[in-house]
């Protein structure tokens, strides 16, 4: 086929050289990703972060294509089992890279938390189901090609080089989302030297490694990831909106259940497009029809529902009134019941207006085979061909290895921080609540000051 080029603000050009890739991009399941934001509610904080999982998936494909070209040009397998790159793996790599996010639902991770879904499982179902356009395109390659692609997503594919290029501590997925999220959020934290990292990449029998002289570029990538999580992904206001959205969906589920037994509640408040989801019997076809626009339309309707809690939460979300939060200081967690009682006394149902949100992640960690989810560590190849794990030779990475970043926060209605609330009968409660807050932290109040 004649090469097709997509213009892209992050990679400049995305080059499609295989008809099957172009056909997959045109499927209804892949086009759906245009209607799912990559960063969910983060655009409420970083107004430019309106980019989609469609553009991210194209970007992951492009990085994987560059991986494949580099490995084929410099490290093609010369003999079976010599640890080199097998060019025959190119198409399964590019296809898995393109399709890796197919199964994401609306507002991705918040959606998964409430409805107990797993986007990787849905990705595999979409790839394997004979009812999808994606599956029909993949079967055009070979009958077993859908299963091969799905096994890459499941991390069970026999060639671990392919798996690590898509899913590891330094892979095409993470590289694109760091660069893309940094670009659209306006943050510079996520930038790193992609071309240098690709140039330093090399295969070995167990997976993918990097030449030792490329250590500085790999260090920069690890630190960039650290900064993006600290400054963008775990931003407290974004987390506040995630809590509001979570509680909207939780209240909608509870209210929907009440409508089945309470004749005073009109069950028609639930749109038909979401009914099977909330009833827990959604089919794959129905799931594929869900996107951010359908969820946002439902929230817009719920602003006017008779239930005051659901209506208020929907209004807070639509009009950008997130819950406020304080960091839970060590030793102050025992204060949570007391301030939760104050919030309830002020008229806010704690189940829907409060939350503890613990966001933690590892910027980098070495391989621990007994861990619940073992990490694929980053290996550097020395001149003599031996390999060293990154943190063994990088003092910078060693300083952050295995250390979590993020914090535990308690979320609550912003009204609780009103000062000098003249004429508000809740003013004494607000004043009492504020004795537990100092410098945006939850503290133990003491008479005559703070502790």
How are the SSEs ordered, and which strands pair?
Layout: E1 4-8, E2 12-16, H1 19-25, H2 28-31, H3 53-74, H4 90-99, H5 108-115, H6 119-128, H7 133-139, H8 145-153, H9 160-166, H10 172-185, H11 194-200, E3 201-204, E4 207-211, H12 215-233, H13 236-259, H14 272-278, H15 284-288, H16 292-302, H17 308-318, E5 324-328, H18 336-345, H19 350-353, E6 355-361, E7 379-381, E8 387-389, H20 390-393, H21 395-400, E9 405-412, H22 427-434, E10 437-438, E11 441-442, E12 445-446, E13 449-450
Parallel strand pairs: 4-7, 5-11
Antiparallel strand pairs: 1-2, 3-4, 5-9, 6-9, 7-8, 10-11, 12-13
Helix pairs in contact: 1-4, 3-4, 3-10, 4-8, 4-9, 5-13, 6-8, 10-12, 13-17, 18-22
Tell me what the structure shows:
It is a single chain. The chain has helices at 19-25, 28-31, 53-74, 90-99, 108-115, 119-128, 133-139, 145-153, 160-166, 172-185, 194-200, 215-233, 236-259, 272-278, 284-288, 292-302, 308-318, 336-345, 350-353, 390-393, 395-400, 427-434; strands at 4-8, 12-16, 201-204, 207-211, 324-328, 355-361, 379-381, 387-389, 405-412, 437-438, 441-442, 445-446, 449-450. The mean pLDDT is 91. Helix 1 packs parallel to helix 4, helix 5 (108-115) runs parallel beside helix 13 and helix 10 crosses helix 12. The longest helix is centred in the middle third of the chain and has 24 residues, at 236-259. With 451 residues, it is an alpha+beta fold. Helix content is 47%, strand content 12%. The chain has 22 helices and 13 strands.
